[in-house]
């Protein structure tokens, strides 16, 4: 997929891609994802924000680095949960429980946040396994350099 192939409008960025872009680790492929994100309003689910904060806690980041992370997260429009997101999530979880890595609860919340928008948002993800499984059963548009 090239930047020209990415659907217009906002993109929902999953946790892996947001962390790749934030950390800019060598060999993570973050540059490929950043190129696909150019020119789009970037959104993140509430679940991805929580996962990003967990990363800071697990790695015992100090106050300055945590502030930097919060400032990075503020670059995104955070999609919060509401009744529509919950109504979207429930059948997904009922159908896919036990079929995703680590129960896939946060991936399901991210997918539900994307699907509950009008129009639904494409998800830029590095996790084609779980999001691909979700997409086999529910209508998702995925963005990834290899698609």
Mean pLDDT: 96
Content-based structural category: alpha/beta
Strand content: 5-15%
Uncertain runs? none
- Biggest sheet overview: 5 strands, parallel
Number of helices in the DSSP assignment: 7
How do the SSEs run, as a string of H and E? EHHEHHEHHEHE
- Count every beta strand, where a strand is a DSSP E run of 2 or more residues: 5
Cα-to-Cα separation, first versus last residue: 5 Å
Shape: globular
Looking across the biggest beta sheet, what order are the strands in?
3-2-1-4-5
Question: What's the gyration radius in Å?
Answer: 15 Å
Instruction: Name the quaternary structure.
Output: single chain
- The percent range for helix content is 40-55%
Organism: Sphaerimonospora thailandensis
Protein name: PIN domain-containing protein
Family: Belongs to the PINc/VapC protein family.
Cofactor: Mg(2+)
Description:
It comes from Sphaerimonospora thailandensis. Pfam families: PIN (PF01850). The chain is of the alpha/beta class. It has 7 helices and 5 strands, in the order βααβααβααβαβ. The protein has helices spanning 15-23, 30-37, 46-58, 63-73, 83-96, 105-115, 128-137, and strands at 11-13, 42-45, 77-79, 123-124, 142-143. Strands 3-2-1-4-5 form a 5-stranded parallel β-sheet. β4, α7 and β5 (142-143) form a beta-alpha-beta unit. α3 (46-58) runs antiparallel to α6 (105-115) and α5 (83-96) crosses α6 (105-115). The longest helix is centred in the middle third of the chain and has 14 residues, at 83-96. The mean pLDDT is 96.
